[in-house]
Amino acid sequence: MKSLIPLLALCCCTAAAAAATVAPAAAAGSAANPATAPAYVLDNTEVRDVRATAIKRDYQVYVALPDSYRTSTRRYPVIFVVDAGYAFPVARGIASRLHRHAGMEEAIVVGLSYAKGDSAVYSRTRDYTPSVSRKGRRQSDMPGRPMASGEADGYGRFIAADVFPLIAAHYRADMRRKIFVGHSYGGLLGLQMLFTQPRTFEHYILGSPSLWFDQGVMFDREKAYAAAHRDLPASVFFGIGAREILAPGKQRSRAEEDADMVADLREFHDALATHRYPGLATTLKVFADEDHASVFPLVLTHGLRAYLKRQ
Predict the structure, then answer these.
(1) What gap in Å lies between CA 189 and CA 39, rounded to an integer?
(2) Does residue 1 surpass a pLDDT of 60?
(3) pLDDT tens-digit series, residues 253-267
(4) 45-305 sits in which CATH class?
(5) How far is CA 282 from the centre of its chain?
(6) Distance (Å, rounded) from C-alpha 302 to C-alpha 142?
(7) Is 0.85 surpassed by the pTM of this model?
(8) 55: which residues sit within 8 A by CB, 6+ positions away?
């Protein structure tokens, strides 16, 4: 069971290379045409097409199965990770390494792709953000198509209504133990689900959420949720790099160019804590010497440790 998934962003997690092989078909093609290099392949992975029925778009899911999957009959917790082009191979490698070298339980890893026909920037800006920015639309990187945003609700419903049944039908997945992983805009998506349908996942790993988006709209949504609810049944691990701070001499605001992401996340986490929701468990960790680009593997590692069991 193999799939051809490019590993352009795998530099953050070299452990994933341990289980990689060269696809026989690609190798044969290389012999026939020496100028064609074979593709890099991840073992025990599959790619499946999935239609988002409500929002009428097409996506793919990438699935990585644990080493013991073929020789066991048990069901496995499932890690769902957005921004799959980068994050899926990283998550696969880290999950495998945590099992092999740290004794953590194995998990199925599911990567959620960008929409077919869309660029990464276009797809994630539309699908992961909770609102249409009051500051106006950014310039689109897709000619002839204005940048879209604010469709996180629809994308969250797509995950629950279309992706979950697909995974449950084809794999021995323990759908009572689902983990969401999102970074940056992906963190916003996780927060949107947290405040609308918190039981969508049993554990949320949210790295460096872009709380500055739309002048801090997620702070407003946190207050609105608190005003209407007495509980928030969720387990959440927040992580961020210590270098994601405001440059010296600048005044902090709810704007991207003046955002102090560490201060924003501390403020957000403290706001959640003040409500004393009986069903909410949160952890916030700030990783020294890391920035927005480098912190994701650490957030993922610590977030998985906070939920997966030791064997």
Answers:
(1) 32
(2) no
(3) 998 989 999 999 999
(4) alpha beta
(5) 18
(6) 36
(7) yes
(8) 151, 154, 155, 157, 158
